[in-house]
Structures are given as C-alpha cells and as structure tokens.
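INFO batch 0412 | record 1 of 1 | parsing
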Amino acid sequence: MYRRVDGPTMSDERTSDGTVENTPGQGRTPESEPIEPKAPEEFGLVQVWWGDGKGKTTATLGMGMRAAGHGHRVHVLQFMKGGASSVEAVRGEYNAIAALPGMSYENLGHYGWHGMADGSEDESHEEQAQAGLERARELLAAASEADLESALPLDGVPEDGVHMLILDEVLYAADRDLISEDDVLELIDSKPDGLELVLSGSHAEPTYLQEHADLITNVRKQKHPIEDGQRARRGTEF
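INFO prediction complete | emitting tokens
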C-alpha cells in the first residue's frame, strides 16, 4: 500500500483507485479548530491494548482525546484502577476529561488491584467487576439504539450513545477471573457496527481475542524506573 520515495521520512499513499497520492503536509503547520459535534467517518473497529509496559491506558485516553477533538462522543468506563501507595484517588486524567467537550468517564471498580495488599477484599473486587460488566452491556445496548452515523451532543449522557467506548482494564478483570473471557467476547459481539470499541489491560496475552479484534497492540516493558525504587509521580502515572 505504501512505497518509499526520495527523502528519509517521505512516503506515497495509493488511493482506492490505485492513484499515487502524496501524503499531506506541504510544510503547513496544523492549527486547532473549535470543537463542534461531528459524526466519525470510519469508526467501527475493535482495538486491544495489552502488555507488561506502562502506557496502555495512556494510549487509549490519548486516542479518546483525539476523537473528542474531532467532535466525536467518547466515554471511558474503568473496571479498576490502582497503583502504588503514592498514587492519589484523584487522577489527572479525570480532571482533564471533565474539562474536555465530548469526553466523559466513570470508574465502577475499586481504587486498587485485585490480589494486591491494598486493603480491599478480593470478593468485593469481583462484585465491582461484575457491575462494570453490566454497565458495559448497558452502554453497548444504548449505542446500538443510537444513530452513530450522526453527530451526538458533546454534553449528552453516554446512555444516549457514544461513538467510541473505552473499556479500561476490562482485560485485566478477565485475566484475574473477575469476569470471564466469554463475557468479553459477548461485549464484542454486541457492538454496533459504527462504534469504535477499545479494550485495555492484562499483562498476559489475550489470545482469545486474536480472531475478534482488528487491532492488537502489545505494550512491552524494556525498562521502568519502578525497578530502581521510583514511586508513581503526579502528572505521569496519575
């Protein structure tokens, strides 16, 4: 699809009719524009982000921010989110999302990790994960009823439909048997065609999703400052 041309970073792209078209740029500097409600043109894929490296949630939230910047309605449902004892309950991304038109979030899981010494009961983690599963089902059903080929109000509630749904740490919940792999597959099967569904979490490879996802990214750790005793830092980890 792509071929190299003169220059270290230049490429040509072939259009659907086979015509070679230079990639845009032409020395122009991108500029910001007012955010207005707009329907996405090509949403509808299933994305999976997993691995033992830092950045899975960071990547999915960045993608959500990009979609919201184009006027698409985005919602983030977190199944669980924790960290070291230095991590505070109010995370920077929550404040940023609250200030961004078209993007919203909710956290139905514990602020902590299942199986870790965080002061919470593992049985309660399972209850919360099941509640997150039910909520995800509700949001997918609402998206199925919405007209995703049209613009959605930026200040609308997610029950009225969203263009992108990010299920943060849902794969971690499945990895810890708080929900089942079949539950995750059921969520994918119930996705309407126009909804971009993003799943994140798990250090273990979710092989059961290989034939069900359009994009699978393994976020790998090569080096992490936590290995040298660095605690979670405000503004980078939370």
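INFO post-check: The chain has five helices and nine strands.
INFO record closed
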